[in-house]
Amino acid sequence: MSKVEVIRANSDLASRKRGKEIKQLMVAAYCRVSTDSEDRLNSYKSQVSYYSDLIQKNVEWVLADIYADEAITGTQVTKREDFQRMINDCMNGDIDMVITKSISRFARNTLDTLKYVRKLKERDIAVYFEDEKINTLTMDGELLLVVLSSVAQQEVENISANVKKGLKMKMQRGELVGFQGCLGYDYHPEDKSISINEKEAEIVRYIFQRYVEGAGGSIISRELENLGYKTKRGTPTWAETTVLGIIKNEKYKGDILMGKTFTLDPISKRRLENFGEED
After folding, report:
1. Which stretches does DSSP call E strand in 18-162?
2. Which of 48, 109, 190, 271 is spaced 20 to 30 A from 199 at the CA atom?
3. Is 33 exposed, middle or buried (CB count within 10 Å of its CB: 0-12, 13-18, 19+)?
4. 114: domain CATH number?
5. Is residue 250 part of a domain?
6. Are residues 48 and 114 in the same domain?
7. Rounded CA Rg of the chain
8. Tens digits of per-residue pLDDT, 187-207?
9. Does residue 167 form part of some domain?
10. Last residue in a domain, options 139, 157, 175
């Protein structure tokens, strides 16, 4: 049998021009971390370093920019400044391709994911999701993207449900949730307790005494300003609504009512006054 010589492959495609230049794409990367803890910030820095190296090593790519939002919610793209800057640069023709780790990093809202993917696709700008290995310019249809983005949105909803459950359990144990003190009371975060602030309590007693005597909110607010009393925030101006809010606050009769408002859904984060829809 004749001796066979294997001619090893040359993987250096940069030298293979075939008489024309390789078309280089302006590639950007989008990174996001969802909290501002030290570990997450380290992760953020690692992502920036990773994508910088990845893009620079590919001879067909040119690094356009690294877009990164630190400690910004993933459910609302309007709150991510660098994301919006990236989309604007895409619309201005400065970017040919966007790389991101996963669909959930890009957006955890199905409508937002589809909206921006379609918007970029119309400009022939690809979005490549590394974990799912999806290139939006080459994939067949949008069904897979819809399914995966729906899964990412479901993850947010599950986390929200677990957080709500945890808060309700704290309320049932009598723990303070979302209360940072009010006029007449000081909040102690170390043991999550409250104590009377005697200096401010003098103002509270004056408000209730004058209200019992028949004075309205506007009269009491003017009297407080004339007496030189300051609000909890240290301002000398008193609004009628501030006075009436103190009078209506159940804490001044020894009760704490939790859950006065609730979040309608984790995507819009819209809060509503609780009229009995939630415990």
Report:
1. 25-32, 61-69, 97-100, 126-129, 134-135
2. 190
3. buried
4. 3.40.50.1390
5. yes
6. yes
7. 29
8. 888 887 888 999 999 999 999
9. no
10. 157
Backbone angles phi, psi at 28, to 5 degrees: -120, 155
Cα–Cα distances (Å) from 185 to 65, 153, 197, 203, 225, in that order, read: 50, 40, 5, 11, 20
Helix, strand, coil percent values for the chain (each to nearest 5): 45, 15, 40
Q: Which residue range(s) make up the domain with 213? A: 185-257
- Checking 232-238 for CB contacts under 8 A at 24+ apart, the result is 232/181, 232/182, 232/183, 232/200
In a domain, 268, yes or no: no
Neighbours of 258 (CB within 10 A): 17
Cα–Cα distance between 206 and 134 in angstroms, integer? 66
Q: The tokens of 88 are what?
A: 């604007």
- pTM here? 0.49
